[in-house]
Amino acid sequence: MSTGFGHSEGEGRHTVSIDDFVIARNPEEDSSLPYLVRLPLGPDGIVLKVREIWPRTAKLYCHPAAGWPSAPEIIERVPVRSCSRRGAAIDLVLERGRENRSQFVFAKARGRDVIFWQSARTSRQARPNVTIPTKRASGHVLEILVDSHEQRPWRFNQQQATIARTALTAGDYGVEVDGKLIASVERKSLPDLVSTMTGGKLRYVLAALADVPRSALVVEDRYSAIFKLVHVRPATIAEGLAEAQVRFPDVPIVFGETRPLAQEWTYRFLGAALEHHLSDTVAKELTDVLPLAVPLEPAPPSTASIRAWATQQGLPVAAKGRLRPEIVAAYNDAHHRAHTSTSGDDSTRQQVPAGPAPS
User: Fold this and answer.
1) CATH architecture, domain 142-285
2) CATH 4.10.320 residue ranges in the chain?
3) How far apart are the first and last CA of the chain?
4) The domain at 303-348 falls in which architecture?
5) pLDDT digits (tens, 9 = 90+) for 304-342
6) 272-305: per-residue pLDDT in tens?
7) Please, what sign has the CA dihedral across residues 28, 29, 30, 32?
8) Which end of the chain is more exposed for a tag (fewer CB within 10 A), N or C?
């Protein structure tokens, strides 16, 4: 696939190490996007140009930047709690009380790939990138693979789906992309579920499902029916289900109430899993070719941390206001000695300028 940002291949959820989210002034004076944001995605981070420093009133259009400036004018630097790409969106959570959750969404606008920055307050969700030729559950025919060992299989006569019998490596129903099983559902009646659990086979069924990117086990009955069982203790089954769900948290166990409802849930699940897989692949391709940022230098210590250190050392320091230069110098000297005692490298010393305390 060729996109406006380039070409690469890959799939799957991409979770990154925790780093800082940085906003800087865009050095391009004639740009209509006056700010740069650095996302801690990948080994170094990616850089985007934006119009505002936060999506407060509307989602913000983003454009790949040429790179991170060598001497950036930092406007804001915030520790990141998490930054993960899930499907066609990058979810960003910052370590602060307000304006801490947002998304960078890969979308399609007027036939070209774009990125929007949005928060819960501003998002009418950007339309996901759905221009890839695909068979989706919503409005299209979904090809569902049915395991050749499945007895009395669902026919999906009421859904927009076709079925094909084949041997599945996990589950009873699934969808494939390029010959790879990307989603699977195991079907169980309540008696079948009970016999599988008491016979010790349930953990192996769930372990096989856990090897599929998206999977689930659906039961053609209500959860309350467990407590009407006669030939086995209901508490034993309830406890076994709880233990199985804790052991395999990525494989949900769903009670569909009836056979038709369980079939409908499976159809929607497989369709959603296929759409997620395809949008995730597109987002991965776009992310891989976004400009990389240089590694961040360590953030200088805050005035509050220097004041706390001085207090621990018994140095006289005011509770508020500007720090005296000798306090900052003492802090720098102490931490420089601590660093050189372990690394022996005098070139890594970073001086901290005195400045007013944050209000």
Assistant:
1) 3-Layer(aba) Sandwich (3.40)
2) 303-348
3) 51
4) Irregular (4.10)
5) 888 888 888 888 888 888 888 888 888 888 877 665 655
6) 999 888 888 878 877 777 767 767 777 778 888 8
7) positive
8) C
